[in-house]
Description:
By secondary structure, this protein is α+β, with helices and mostly antiparallel strands. Helix 9 (313-338) runs antiparallel to helix 11 (366-378). The protein is globular and about 80 Å long. It has 11 helices and 10 strands. Strands 1-4-5-8 form a 4-stranded mixed β-sheet. A 4-stranded antiparallel β-sheet has the order 2-3-7-6, covered by helices on one side. Strands 9-10 form a two-stranded antiparallel ribbon. It has 3 domains: 7-120, Acyl-CoA dehydrogenase/oxidase, N-terminal domain (Butyryl-Coa Dehydrogenase, subunit A, domain 1); 122-231, Butyryl-CoA Dehydrogenase, subunit A, domain 2 (Beta Barrel), CATH 2.40.110.10; 233-378, Butyryl-CoA Dehydrogenase, subunit A, domain 3 (Up-down Bundle). The structure holds flavin-adenine dinucleotide. Flavin-adenine dinucleotide (FAD) is lined by residues 89, 122-126, 131-132, 156-158, 201, 204, 209, 358, 361-362, 364-365, 367-368, 371.
Amino acid sequence: MNFDLNEEQLSVQKMVRDFVANEITPNAKQWDQEETFPMDLWRKMGDLGIIGTSIPEEYEGSGMDFISHAIVAEELGYGCSSMRGSYSVNISLVAKTILQWGTEEQKKKYVPGIALGEMFGCYGLTEPDSGSDAASMKSTAEKDGDYYILNGNKMWITHANLADVSIIFAKTDKDKGARGITAFLVDKGTPGFTPQPIHEKIGLRAQDTGEIVMENVRVHKDNMLGPEGKGFAVAMSALDNARFTVAAGCVGTAQAALDVAKQYAKERIQFGKPIAAHQLVQQLIANAAVDIEMGRLLVYRAGFLKNKGVRNTRETCMAKYFCGEMVNRVTYDMIQVLGGYGFSAEYPLERMYRDSRINTLYEGTSQIQQLIIGNNELGIPAFA
Ligand SMILES: Cc1cc2nc3c(=O)[nH]c(=O)nc-3n(C[C@H](O)[C@H](O)[C@H](O)COP(=O)(O)OP(=O)(O)OC[C@H]3O[C@@H](n4cnc5c(N)ncnc54)[C@H](O)[C@@H]3O)c2cc1C
């Protein structure tokens, strides 16, 4: 067993770490407060190959392995969770899913643009009345000659308003439950497809979130992603990739929170000495350090299996479950280290804390991760 990063992984880590320190961390507060996404910077990242990390070079990606992919997510999560989220959605939920299930024409049309930061994608699974129980979705896709007519509503969709292409899941057979779902690629501006922004979120304020109304949206059969009736499998495969990226991002945010708290603890004097010298403060720091290291190892373990191309749903869910909970514990405790100052926007911890809350909710809640892990341990097929 070798825990060392190889030369390529170390150089990716250094390049992205420097980029985040110079271009992202200093601006994350402003993007959060103004609810703006730095589109120009995103394009610059595309040019540097930081977005298309694990996308093959023939589709304008950098052809990196999954550990490098995780390193980039971790470093982005260190600076700004909204940017890490856009990396997760564009690459893990959308581009990789098109690569896995799409026709060559679909891959060529969408993947290079996303990898270069020139196009945005979104993934529309959740609806107002179906979240964890995705198979109970109400959106429909009725066949009409060479077209499908999509109707329904999608809720909480990251990049809904920005996306050039949306992966939309809808029922082609209402009586077949999960086996009646089909995935479609819907281009921006398709008549009847109307996204609306959602504001006033606790966190991820720099990131676009929206709902989508679909009224008689005509989509050509060539825009079907994967076979008819296999949409649920398409959706779950996308989540296997995205949960990995979320978990890695959580490690980065938790590390950033710990680093802020360590520096503060060495400088803040109470009872005549730095608070870092009080053992109960050290306990908070030590617990965070152990938590982060455990999360990182779970992420790397899942990445190791992904590199081998073997099934990794169990390990990816473990990483997502642990890291999603861990980053909430760590950011909460690091605010404790800062005392009242941690409660103020003068320090980045309050943003990190708000941004972290989503991680036990999206890409499958912590309870859903536990169900998948539990079913796996017991040999029960999940959501059969
Ligand atoms: C900011 C943000 C961005 C998002 N981005 C996207 C996106 O890009 N694409 C997309 O499709 N969705 C997206 N989502 C939706 C997200 O994936 C869902 O919110 C999530 O899956 C949970 O669904 P729900 O909100 O309907 O909660 P529900 O499913 O209603 O769950 C409510 C509670 O019940 C629990 N629960 C439900 N079923 C069970 C069970 N069987 N056993 C135990 N507990 C259970 C849940 O764990 C949770 O605690 C996003 C959400 C947010 C807030």
